[in-house]
Amino acid sequence: MKLSPRATGLVAAVVTVLIWTSFIIIARASTAYTLRPLDIVFVRTCGAAAVLLPWAWWLMRPARQRGEKVGSLWGLSPLPWRITVLAGFFGSMMYGLLAYSGFFFAPAAHASVLMPGSLPLWTSLLAWVLLRDRIGKTRALGLLCIVGGDLLVGGASLLKAFEGGQVWVGDLCFMTAAFCWSVYGVLVRRHGLDPVRATMAITAFTSVAFLPAYGALAWAGWVNSGLALAPWQELLFQAAFQGVGSVAISGITFTLMVRHFGPVRSTMITAIVPGLSALGAVLLLGEPLHWNLVVGLALVTFGILFGVLSTLKATPK
């Protein structure tokens, strides 16, 4: 049975919210184990590549058999070279490097506010600049709430930097990771990328640009890596959840959201992620929820909801 575009978008939204919420909690919990941030990116890419690259090869096989020139990166990516590099650099490699590094400095509650919370801010600004999307009064009010929430969380940790704290480093990583993912979302909308092919392409780029270089550095002992020390259960779990779940499944569902709802509305739909992941961090990880986090979380959530209201008003009946 073929789902309608609306049903497809709603299913994609539910799956994306569940995986994104789990991603924040699991990524923070992973800091207590063996793997380092770049190790997790390495294992994540291996897990995603094991599923997506053979699929990409099979997807392009009919065109190759007809003698057509298809894809790039030696047949690993189904998209042209330029789009593969841009989308892969921002949506896979840099996002992963920044996000996982952030969890080693800042708690999951900060990530709950600053990553999914900042997506509407960055996406709205990028869509305004690149796609000429109009920012109405209601959405502008929502963006101001998001900025206020981000400042409450990130500003507090920045002040503690003068006392020797390092949480601000993680907060900066989270904000920059959200920017990178927003760039990817806008690229998907601007070029009308197919969700499956886009996810294959960004995985192919990271597999070529990151895996060999980091694997060689880790093997030579030139980077602080836990790949050789981690038990196989940890490696398998991270490859399955971070690679297959966070990259392959949520990458496709997020791209489906962008195609059906647009980049701004898609990020607005994830309004529930900050609250769910912050609550999960308190209940499952025992993290404290200080007043600035509570107020910042509320401001970010209200800001996203204002954005949802503005897009719903702008949507033709």
Q: Uncertain regions: pLDDT < 50 for 5+ in a row?
A: none
Number of strands: 0
Please state the structural category: mainly alpha
**Rg (C-alpha, Å):** 19 Å
- Helix count, DSSP H or I runs of 4 or more residues: 13
User: What value does the average pLDDT take?
Assistant: 85
Roughly what fraction of the amino acids lie in strands?
A: under 5%
* Count of discrete structural domains: 1
- End-to-end Cα distance, whole Å, is 26 Å
Main sheet record: none
User: How much helix is in the residues?
Assistant: over 70%
Order of helices and strands: HHHHHHHHHHHHH
Q: Based on Cα principal axes, name the global outline.
A: globular
Provide an overview of this structure.
The protein is mostly helical. It has one domain. The chain is built from 13 helices and no strands. The longest helix has 30 residues, at 232-261. The two termini are 26 Å apart. 54% of the residues are buried.
Index terms:
317 residues; mainly alpha; 13 helices
Reconstruct the topology from this structure.
Layout: H1 5-29, H2 37-65, H3 81-103, H4 108-114, H5 119-130, H6 137-160, H7 167-191, H8 195-209, H9 211-220, H10 232-261, H11 263-269, H12 272-285, H13 291-314
